[in-house]
Design goal:
With about 200 residues, the chain is of the alpha/beta class.
């Protein structure tokens, strides 16, 4: 029995290790798109891909989770921090869960990441390279409800997007990359269990 075993007595965890396994196996670096050249991570409204056609009814609809984690990695620069967090940034869904996520859950995870020695910055979109025109700079806008992190919020779940830094070669630096995700997931899970009544009432 590991140190996190007590969490499984207080909450149900539903894990989807990879929503695009075929794309991940394409080429030396994998592909964001699936073999049909469709972006699975932008398909939560249209449900045009077989992956999302299966996943939404079998996970979201079947389990109706209170909290959703959309875990990713990203390659930098121009992003340079170890870990980025985000949550629905539009008006697609209810506000009570958004406020609880923004003002309580996310700060708790940031504190845990920084205590473990990892740098953090709010997730943002950036231009393709460094630019001198400020109007072409970073944006805190979301991708809309077609992306899981916003789609979950529109479904009234508390949703958090994880983006952890990795090198171009996905085979490198596995240990610190796994550690970052572990710290964030543990902090999230412990917070949700400790505040279960408030989470259930809010969602």
């Amino acid at each position: 029995e590991g140190p996190l075993q007590p969490l499984t007595r207080e909450a149900i965890f539903v894990l989807s290790p990879a929503l695009n396994p075929d794309g991940g196996a394409m080429g030396p670096w994998g592909s964001r798109n699936n073999p049909m050249n469709l972006n699975v991570n932008r398909d939560y409204l249209r449900m045009a891909t077989e992956e999302i056609q299966a996943w939404v009814p079998e996970v979201i609809a079947a389990w109706r989770p209170h909290v959703i984690v959309d875990a990713h990695e990203l390659v930098g620069p121009p992003r340079i921090y170890d870990f980025y967090l985000s949550y629905p940034l539009d008006i697609a869904g209810p506000t009570l869960n958004w406020n609880l996520t923004r003002h309580a859950l996310v700060p708790h995870m940031v504190e845990a990441l920084e205590a473990a020695g990892f740098s953090h910055f709010p997730y943002h979109r950036v231009p393709s390279g460094l630019v001198e025109d400020p109007s072409q700079g970073v944006s805190a806008g979301s991708y809309g409800a077609q992306a899981l992190s916003s789609y979950g919020g529109a479904q009234a779940a508390m949703t958090v997007l994880f983006e952890s830094m990795r090198p171009r070669d996905a085979r490198e630096n596995l240990e610190p990359r796994v550690r970052r995700q572990e710290v964030a997931l543990r902090a999230l899970s412990e917070w949700v269990v400790e505040n279960a009544d408030q989470v259930v009432e809010t969602v």
